[in-house]
Structure prediction request, 334 residues.
Amino acid sequence: MKKNYSEPANGYLETISRGIQAVRRFRGGMTEGNLSRKEAIARLKKEIGAADAVVIGAGAGLSTAAGFIYSGERFMKYFGDFADRFGIRDMYSGGFYPYPDRETLWAFWARNIYCNRYVPAPKPVYKDLLSLVRDKDYFVITTNVDHQFQKAGFDKKRLFYTQGDYGLFQSVNPGTRKTYDNEEWVMKAMEAQGFVRNQEGCFEKPEGGRVSMRIPSELIPRCPEDGSDMTMNLRSDDSFVEDDGWHRASAAYADFLRRHEGMHVLFLEIGVGMNTPVIIKYPFWQMTNDNPEAVYVCLNYNEAWCPEQIEERSVCIDGDSGEVIRMLLSMPRQ
Prediction:
């Protein structure tokens, strides 16, 4: 099949292909590495300084370290009434609940989007990470949809959000392949439920704590193109809209990897679990294996390991990524 070189590269398909290759290649055992925690952190600091390029692969664990917790106190602050009425116990499962009407459904999503996309990060983990790589030639690929990299100051031309963005809507009409910014709608929907802004400009429940669990029918979001219903721009099936911005980011990721082939590349994986390993984890293993100059780092809580085949060029650090990043910042340059 002849390749059309006039078409932009599709970094997403290329990375999935690498992930599938890794599934076939790495059939041996896994290892937590042969370095102590202190040695591993020192090695990571050295590799960041020496690397020609840093590719950051970020998963949900990084946002968890930044304080974006989907359950517990943070959940009850915004969704205590939903928990009492519907029995939901976290923001993730609440997104799949069969609410009685669209007014209630969109009241839930307004709160969910607000506290996971527009509220400042409780902890400065993303800003600390930027401080660590600011002077490096870096690129970020992430399955997170909370947009925290750009909010922390990362260059948006060096970011690839593969799975969507809490800040975007898309039409349910498969023929409308566009996305729409939802910030103005979210703020109106929060106010319509009775939330009020505090001195810092963040929404809170009013005195007395009672808010509505429904938005007015006229606030239910409609597609400006065709008037159809809207939904979140989050990848769940083949209806996910990959808009022009998504394709530019995908091509930029492919180009970044191509320009650094054979160079000393640090593949820095942070907080990536096993829900979608074929997007970040497996491709990072494959690219490290294929490039003798590359180094793979797995920074994760209770899941820090790598294939035995690349152990000598890998660093595995078990722990809270925010704490490890702060430790790295406090260490002298190498």
The radius of gyration is 21 Å. The domain at 28-65+123-162+243-330 is CATH 3.40.50.1220 (Rossmann fold). DSSP finds twelve helices and 13 strands in the chain. The chain has a mean pLDDT of 94.
